[in-house]
Design brief:
The protein has 15 helices and ten strands. The strands form two sheets. Strands 1, 2, 5, 6, 7, 8, 9 and 10 form an eight-stranded mixed β-sheet that branches. A two-stranded antiparallel sheet has the order 3-4. The protein is globular and about 55 Å long. The protein folds into two domains: about 45 residues, no CATH class; about 300 residues, Cytosolic phospholipase A2 catalytic domain (3-Layer(aba) Sandwich). Helix content is about 45%, strand content about 10%.
């Protein structure tokens, strides 16, 4: 009896304890369920069980457009392949003619529009010199008056003024302004549909100048001021010439913009053999090519296995063959297709590329007219 009297309360206490523990266990389970239901709302993407958040981010693609006069039309053929393979371009850096093609693509043109523009232009007429003054804005007219750039040989302050380049650049300037008119409200090149840089050289110091803002047409024009051919361009108090002598393929520039992968398009050709060199102009071009070769080599050394180097075989086609732009573009396309396996690593889905294209491409004026 006493034993039952002693142990009976213990059994009752145990039952009460078990009931209480059961309730606590139920509450704990509910609490855990609530906790885990709320986790994705505040945990980092790596910790939350969200498939979309766990999807790897694609690498940022930077494209380098090398200089080379008319040979730069090869860039258009490469761009055709990039679009066909659904490879988005996140950053652009260009030099000389590469700065022109790069500026137009960065401003929102497609490869097809670029080819249409480049092949429709009467380049011989553009390089003649004076445009119809009705096609020049007031600022350009004022500059012509102040600097006598419209004269082959003129008089200023009682002194003979000689041209600064073999090609008078008024029509070139007007052409670029017309082609890039849709960017007139943008003075920060990071705000273009594709962030962009043009490379020029300071004529007084020899330093590289990276242009990242201002008038897009001015930046592109400054980058292609080939010494002896085009007059230098004055921007921000500096006299600028073709950037090819300091950085003909600006790999480091586009990488500095944030590119994880660089697609480098180099339209450089072997140096001219001595027996094929002509007069002083030919020798000047050879000297410039030698300087370019050195800096191109230094930039190529920085390319890694993730990058893609494209060097179209242009045969006898040269820097002055603007009338063969379509043929040159074809060589660029062929060279890109030869690197198709390397390029396809960076293709995205059709939906992702459609979204990219919709946000990066802009309509261009339907007609490009160059005053004769």
């Amino acid at each position: 009896m006493n034993g039952r009297a002693i142990f009976s309360p213990l059994r009752m206490n145990n039952r009460a304890h078990d009931a209480k523990a059961g309730k606590l266990l139920t509450i704990s389970r509910i609490s855990l369920m609530l906790f885990f239901s709320l986790v994705p709302a505040w945990m980092s993407p790596a910790e939350a069980a969200d498939p979309a958040a766990e999807a790897p981010k694609r690498p940022k693609i930077g494209v380098v457009f090398g200089g080379g006069g008319a040979k730069g039309a090869a860039h258009i053929g490469v761009l055709k392949v990039l679009e066909e393979q659904k490879i988005p371009v996140d950053y652009i850096a260009g030099t000389s003619m590469g700065a022109i093609v790069g500026a137009l693509y960065a401003s929102g043109l497609t490869a097809a529009e670029l080819e249409k523009v480049i092949t429709a232009i009467d380049w011989k007429d553009v390089f003649k010199g004076d445009p119809d003054r009705r096609d020049i804005d007031y600022r350009r007219k004022r500059e012509d008056y102040e600097h006598l750039t419209g004269l082959q040989v003129g008089i200023k302050d009682g002194k003979v003024v000689m041209p600064k380049g073999l090609i008078q650049d008024q029509k070139v300037n007007v052409l670029f302004e017309m082609l890039m008119l849709h960017t007139s409200d943008i003075d920060d090149f990071d705000k273009l549909p594709i962030p962009y840089r043009a490379v020029a050289a300071d004529l007084e110091t020899g330093e590289m100048v990276v242009l990242k803002g201002g008038r897009l047409a001015d930046a592109a024009r400054a980058s292609m001021s080939v010494p002896g051919a085009f007059p230098p361009v004055e921007l921000n108090g500096r006299l600028l010439i073709d950037g090819g002598i300091v950085r003909n393929v600006p790999v480091d520039i586009v990488r500095g913009m944030g590119a994880d992968v660089v697609i480098c398009i180099d339209v450089d050709k072997p140096l001219t053999k001595g027996k094929d060199l002509g007069g002083s102009l030919s020798i000047l071009n050879q000297m410039i090519d030698i300087m370019m070769k050195k800096n191109v080599y230094e930039q190529k050394k920085t390319l890694g296995p993730q990058d893609v180097y494209i060097n179209p075989d242009l045969g006898e086609l040269g820097s002055a063959d603007f009338d063969k732009a379509a043929e040159i573009a074809g060589h660029g396309e062929k060279a890109a297709r030869e690197k198709i396996d390397s390029l396809k690593r960076y293709s995205v889905s059709e939906a992702e590329y459609a979204a990219f294209a919709a946000s990066h491409h802009r309509d261009l004026v339907n007609e490009v007219k160059v005053a004769s």
